[in-house]
């Protein structure tokens, strides 16, 4: 059997997609590619394949083991769900960007060397930004710009770390890295940007709510989970990650509880839930890493379901905040969407019989085994806040508005409901029967989630949260908010640096332009009249004035030429 890298069908599909003129053919391609990859993955033998020589380096495009396969499975499943949900989208560019995004995420997952990983890492960022920009308004444009700035910063740190690592050890192989040293720190920094670990997280709640309705569903699944995968591969057992993840889990919940925007609230819960995964990776060991991987698998399903539910509301009503939805009641118009959303809510909250229950509890159990009571407390508190804001507050303020205004809306398109239905079915199936998931995890699983004490303890916490919500219900009102997160600091810092640098750069630019202009005028005068250097000063000045007028339109050209040769000179020096 020829092992075809899982990313290849998606990349080929992205190239072919604009040339397919029949709509049904395009739709079939979008659904067929994930199914084809999903069928192929279980047949892969473990090992390294597709080794390519590039300059003096050997690149490994396909490295297969249980860790890469489990992420390959869920990335392919999510691609099918996402394309089914967005089957009505007619913008070929948006679908191409999604194909590239999924393909590059799979490229990261199966990369056997750091250079290949970096190439797909950057392709992932470059393709995903179009899922934000295709929304087409000014907010999406600027959110995408800030998104790409963060990822360029992370990519530069990652590349610098890879180069230093190669110079130190002479190997590009993807594997466990030292937990100290400049090279490892830079590589870790690049990974943490994509994992949205505070204070490197503002790009996520800033950009994800501004994406297209379908694009945001894809965004929830790949960037942060690719980072979790590579952290598990390279930095498992790093104590810093354990504490960062535990704080991150509670941090995201706190900011989510203050939000008025549906998708921004859910975006902060991505920060929180990825915190659980990062914490599991940091705890390390079989239980910690298995818990992180299992939770990433389950999170992709229920978070996509939550974003699909919120997206369906926005698609049908054109409203995206609780304040805008306060005067209408949707539960009669969109009951099926509400039910499907609540399945996602029960899953993210870790309610028994839903998939979050069988994955999140593994990470908490790992913290108990490691004897870290503070970590356990932080994770449990985050779980309570998650249930409050995603499963109680959001559905209440979205579907049960206090106003009596009638709106002529109904359920979203059939393909959107089908996409939500597939995700909801898998959330329930894995919650009731977690064995297939546990069997796919990288280490043997000796954990039983359905024990009496675990069920009773979980239901007690959830019941207490429901009682608190009921008591606070008369005070729960939608209100417009402006959340000041770390992005406020970054924007102030960016403006200050821009003002500071532009003042010095403008003066430097003026002097360079004057000097170049003087050189060009002198050389032009000499070419027109080689004896101009011997002319009287007044005559020579008249000639220079004449030439300045004629050469004024060539200023941009000379500026570009200067920039080009300056860049070449800089590269030569480096």
Topology:
Layout: H1 7-16, H2 23-40, E1 47-54, E2 57-64, H3 66-85, H4 92-110, H5 114-133, H6 138-169, H7 182-195, H8 203-207, H9 213-219, H10 223-234, H11 239-256, H12 262-283, H13 285-317, H14 322-325, H15 335-348, H16 355-369, H17 373-399, H18 414-432, H19 435-440, H20 452-472, H21 486-528, H22 537-551, H23 555-573
Keywords:
mainly alpha, 574 residues, single chain, 23 helices, 2 domains, disordered C terminus
Short description:
With 574 residues, the protein is mostly helical. 72% of the residues lie in helices and 3% in strands. The protein has two domains: 7-231 and 305-348 and 395-475, no CATH class; 514-573, no CATH class.
Can you describe this structure?
Helices cover about 70% and strands about 5% of the residues. The protein is built from 23 helices and two strands. Strand 1 and strand 2 form a beta hairpin. The two termini are about 45 Å apart.
Rg, Cα atoms, Å: 27 Å
Beta-strand content bin: under 5%
What count of domains describes the coordinates?
2
Number of DSSP E strands: 2
Q: Could you give the distance between the termini? A: 45 Å
What is the strand arrangement across the widest sheet? 1-2
- Low-confidence spans: pLDDT under 50, at least 5 residues? 527-540, 546-574
Number of helices: 23
Describe the biggest sheet?
2 strands, antiparallel
Give the assembly state of these chains. single chain
Shape: globular
Order of helices and strands: HHEEHHHHHHHHHHHHHHHHHHHHH
Mean pLDDT: 87
Which bin fits the share of residues in helices?
A: over 70%
Structural class: mainly alpha
């Amino acid at each position: 059997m020829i092992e075809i890298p899982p990313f290849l069908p998606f990349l080929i599909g992205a190239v072919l997609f604009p040339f397919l003129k029949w709509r049904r053919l395009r739709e079939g391609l979008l659904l067929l590619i994930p199914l084809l990859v999903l069928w192929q993955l279980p047949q892969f033998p473990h090992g390294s394949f597709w080794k390519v020589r590039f300059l003096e380096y050997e690149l490994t495009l396909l490295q297969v083991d249980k860790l890469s396969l489990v992420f390959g499975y869920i990335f392919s499943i999510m691609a099918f769900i996402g394309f089914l949900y967005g089957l009505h989208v007619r913008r070929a560019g948006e679908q191409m960007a999604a194909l590239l995004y999924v393909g590059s995420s799979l490229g990261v997952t199966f990369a056997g060397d750091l250079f290949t990983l970096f190439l797909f890492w950057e392709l992932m960022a470059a393709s995903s930004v179009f899922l934000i920009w295709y929304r087409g308004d000014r907010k999406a444009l600027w959110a995408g710009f800030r998104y790409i700035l963060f990822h360029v910063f992370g990519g530069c740190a990652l590349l610098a770390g890879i180069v230093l690592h190669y110079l130190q050890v002479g190997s590009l192989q993807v594997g466990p890295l030292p937990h100290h040293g400049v090279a490892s720190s830079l590589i870790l920094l690049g990974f943490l940007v994509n994992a949205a670990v505070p204070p490197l997280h503002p790009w996520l709640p800033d950009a994800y709510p501004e994406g297209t309705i379908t694009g945001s569903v894809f965004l929830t699944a790949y960037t942060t989970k690719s980072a979790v995968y590579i952290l598990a591969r390279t930095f498992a057992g790093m104590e810093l990650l354990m504490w960062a993840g535990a704080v991150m889990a509670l941090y995201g919940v706190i900011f989510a509880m203050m939000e008025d925007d549906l998708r921004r609230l859910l975006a902060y819960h991505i920060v929180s839930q990825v915190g659980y995964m990062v914490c599991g990776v940091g705890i390390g060991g079989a239980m910690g890493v298995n818990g992180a991987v299992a939770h990433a698998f389950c999170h992709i399903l229920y978070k996509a379901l939550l974003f699909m539910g919120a997206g369906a509301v926005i698609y049908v009503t054109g409203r995206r905040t609780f304040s805008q939805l306060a005067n209408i009641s949707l539960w009669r118009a969109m009951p099926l969407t509400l039910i499907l959303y609540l399945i996602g809510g029960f899953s993210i909250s870790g309610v028994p019989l839903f998939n979050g229950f069988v994955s999140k509890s593994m990470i908490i159990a790992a913290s108990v085994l490691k004897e870290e009571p503070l970590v356990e407390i932080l994770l449990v508190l985050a779980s309570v806040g998650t249930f409050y804001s995603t499963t109680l507050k959001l559905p209440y303020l979205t579907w049960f508005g206090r106003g009596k205004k009638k709106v002529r809306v109904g359920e979203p398109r059939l393909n959107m409901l089908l996409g939500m239905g597939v995700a909801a079915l898998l959330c329930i199936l894995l919650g009731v029967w977690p064995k297939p998931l546990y069997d796919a995890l990288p280490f043997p699983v000796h954990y039983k989630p359905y024990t009496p004490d675990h069920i009773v303890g979980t239901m007690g916490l959830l019941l207490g949260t429901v009682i608190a919500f009921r008591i606070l219900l008369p005070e729960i009102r939608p209100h417009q908010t402006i959340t000041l997160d770390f992005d406020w600091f970054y924007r102030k810092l960016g403006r200050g640096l821009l003002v500071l640098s532009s003042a010095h750069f403008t003066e430097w630019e003026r002097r360079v332009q004057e000097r170049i202009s003087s050189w060009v005028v002198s050389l032009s005068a000499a070419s027109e009249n080689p004896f101009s250097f011997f002319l009287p000063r007044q005559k020579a000045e008249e000639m220079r004035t004449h030439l300045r007028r004629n050469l004024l339109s060539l200023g941009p050209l000379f500026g570009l030429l200067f920039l080009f040769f300056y860049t070449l000179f800089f590269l030569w020096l480096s």
